[in-house]
Amino acid sequence: MVSDRIGDFIIRLQNAARIGKREVVVPYSAYLFAIAKKLKELGFLAAVEAKTNEDSDAKKTLIAALAYDERGLSRLRGVKRISKPGRRLYAPYTALHRVKGGTGSRIISSPIGIVSDSEARKNHVGGENLFEIW
Description:
Layout: H1 5-19, E1 23-27, H2 30-42, E2 45-52, E3 60-66, E4 79-81, E5 90-91, E6 105-110, E7 113-116, H3 117-123, E8 127-133
Antiparallel strand pairs: 1-3, 2-3, 4-8, 5-8, 6-7, 6-8
């Protein structure tokens, strides 16, 4: 049993990107699906799909296809978990800065849903700093 689903998901993405794997399969949750859709909007994932297993009708899986550029290099180069289950970190929109000079993004769980740091600054909302991705 995994106690930190978000941490497990982003580390699986990072490991898959480093070895050149095309997709990652994790147990489904609506929260992870929202995070994956945001990563697709930001260009780190090529496709996101929720699929029900044929052999077990109750279990769903989340399939995330990694995005690669024309040279075959992964768009995802690194991740850093900020807020953890033992220590939640929150920030107002005024404290959200650019990640890696604007080439990365910070993912935030806000009252309006999962947003990136630039969207949080634009909409004047803060929230829980989940992780940075570049």
